[in-house]
Each structure stands twice: as structure tokens, then as C-alpha cells.
Amino acid sequence: MKTVTGLFDNYDDASDAVGELEASGVPHANISIVANNSNDWYDDGDTSKAAEDATGGAGVGAVIGGAGGLLTGLGLMAIPGVGPVVAAGWLAATAVGALGGAVVGGAAGGIVGALTDSGVSERDAHVYAEGVRRGGAMVTAKVDDDQAGEAERILGQTNSVNLEERRGTYEAGGWTGFDPKADPYTDIEVERDRTRNASPL
Q1: Is position 165 within any domain?
Q2: What is the pLDDT of residue 64?
Q3: Which of 49, 91, 105, 128 has the smallest C-beta neighbourhood within 10 Å, fewest atoms?
Q4: What is d(CA 25, CA 34) in angstroms, rounded to the nearest whole number?
Q5: Residue 49 domain-assigned?
């Protein structure tokens, strides 16, 4: 199995990628999505609680894929350093230490550890985690070797973020790596970053 990951600036593009992965034959049990929820765009009734628990890493909601596909299992949770997120799938559960429906904050390694444990380089894992922290959405899939090329094409589409360019943008602003102890981005900071990223350099 190979892990393939893509970063998107918004949930809609990430959701489209999930749909394409499922349509290409990747089981929804092998796909994960984690999307920033700092502006409460997704509300399952526990949004304020998740925001309060974001620093401590407590999680709220279920993080499993439903019978109708991965996106039917979306749940609200908080990841240390990222804050409130909408997530589903194996990576989300691993990132917050979910086990048997109980979500425990502060899992060893958090989101970066979950990514590196699944085969993503640590250098890239930091950028993916920071991208979600700054308002983005990440899609990760575990695929067989014969599915890897198509999965990489789907997650590398034009609506996805160029990871090297985004790393350069972050580093130009003084960023050195994802910090799980950092304060989550506010919706104002997220919007500022989205506007900056949408502007030509």
C-alpha cells in the first residue's frame, strides 16, 4: 500500500477529490479528509465545544466513513495546533488518538505523526498540517500500487495546492514547521491567508 496526499485551499475541492477517488475504486475506508472549520462552516451542534477544546486536542464527533461513502461520516473534532476541523476516515481518527469511538487528545505525534506513520515524509507532513491549520483541507488515501498513478493524478489536479510552492510561501514568512502547541488560526487569519494564496505572486 502507498499513501497519497493532496492539499486543497477549500473543502469543496477536497470533497470533489474524495468523490473522484471513490469513483476510481479506492474504498472509502482507505480515504481520509481533514478540513479546517475555524469559521464554523460545518456545524453539527458541537462547534463551540470543539473550538474550546482545540488547544487541548479533545475531539468531538464520529470519524468513520458511512455506508454511503466517506463524506457521510463527517464529524467535528479538534486537533492540537490545528483547531476545530471537519474530518472523516482513518487518518483523522489516528491524528487524535480515536479508538473505538472514544476520541482522546494529544495522541503521540498528532497529525504530523499520523501522516509520517502512514508513509508521508516528515518534511511534507509539516506542510500538509500547516495547510489545514491555515484554512485548507487535506485528502489522504491508502492505495494499492496499481491505483497509485490515478490517485496521484486526482490529488494533483489543478485545484490542489503545489506543495513546494506553498512550503516556499510559508518559509518566506518565517515558518519553520508545524507546531502542535501553536494557537489555531482564527477565521480572520484563515481568510487573510486564502486571499494571499489566491493572489498572483
Answers
A1: yes
A2: 36
A3: 49
A4: 21
A5: yes
Q: Please compute Rg for the chain using Cα positions.
A: 15
- What is the C-alpha separation between 168 and 129, in angstroms, rounded? 15
**What cell numbers appear for 9 in the block?**
485551499
Q: Domain span at residue 58?
A: 2-196
Query: Using one digit for the tens of pLDDT, what is the confidence trace for 126-181?
Result: 999 999 999 999 999 999 999 999 999 999 987 899 999 999 999 999 999 999 88
Burial per residue of 153-169, b for 16 or more beta-carbon CB atoms within 10 angstroms, e otherwise: ebbeeeebbebeebbeb
Instruction: Tell me if residue 106 falls in helix, strand or coil.
Output: coil
Residue 201 located in a structural domain: no
Which residues lie closer than 8 Å to 132 by C-beta, 6 or more apart?
7, 34, 35, 36, 79, 82, 85, 111, 138
Q: Which of 13, 88, 10, 75 is nearest to 49 (CA)?
A: 75
Distance CA 148, CA 160 (A): 17
Total structural domains in the chain? Answer: 1
Q: How far apart are CA 110 and CA 91, in angstroms?
A: 10
